[in-house]
């Protein structure tokens, strides 16, 4: 039950295709006449017994008429594709086969637009009468429709031509850029070799520079050691020079004695010995005198200390005497005052009986 609807739909689809094919199909004579009109000699007998080469030529004529596509026009693109895919083996696919395959793709697109959706390579190499009638009928009907839409087709054709020119220009530019790219690659390889040499040379120079730096460090350390040694040798030389100068001076001093005779030298030695003894005795006398002076100095120091202490004592005594004189003066003054008061008391005592006798009642009154 489930297969019945699908089979019915398939039958309906086949009937519709047969109806459209019967509607689109043209008579053999009409097809042959239309093909002859485009410039290819063709008869109904040729349609009944098709020749593959002739059929391919007719398809190429239709493709050139409708899309301006031939085997020659697809050759650059197919050659570029072959070079990209089979770069190492460019001759593995012959040029005719390659161009035919490219033309087949373009023709298949054209026939798909005409309504032929099942076009295959079999239609080019082993065409049949029924298939050719169908294909040519669809193409002729498409051409007739195209003639009615000439303005639109021309517009799109001009765009296609512009695009084609642009494609060719871009292809040429691509070829030029590829050549430039190849040249740049070659230059890059040459530069890489040159750079590798420079890098190698640079590494060698770095190693050489490192060795020179190490050698410089060693030379610097050696130079420092030699500088220190030079200073030491200079100091030793200066010491030896000073010693030499001293020896020369002593030698110059001794030179007169060396030039004299032994007797004169003996006399000089005797004189020097006598002078030395005299100097020694004088030194001893000076030493004794110095000791005596030192003893006197010590004595003077002791005496000076005693004198200073006596001076201090005298100062203290003078101060005490001054104080005592002040006290004596005060005592004398007090004695004078006491004497005056004593005299006054005596006078009062002498005059008291007189006053008592003359004024007897006075005292009693005063007492009362």
From TrEMBL:
Residues 273-351 form the Nuf2 DHR10-like domain. It comes from the Eukaryota. Residues 167-222 form a coiled coil. Belongs to the NUF2 family. Keywords: Cell cycle, Cell division, Centromere, Chromosome, Coiled coil, Kinetochore, Mitosis, Nucleus. Residues 21-161 form the Kinetochore protein Nuf2 N-terminal domain. The keyword Repeat does not apply. InterPro entries: Kinetochore_Nuf2_N, Nuf2_DHR10-like, Nuf2_N_sf. Acts as a component of the essential kinetochore-associated NDC80 complex, which is required for chromosome segregation and spindle checkpoint activity. One of its GO terms (molecular function) is protein-containing complex binding. It is found in: Chromosome, Centromere, Kinetochore; Nucleus. Residues 1-11 have a biased composition (Polar residues). This is Probable kinetochore protein NUF2. The keyword Transferase does not apply. GO terms for cellular component: Ndc80 complex; nucleus. Residues 1-22 are annotated as: Disordered.
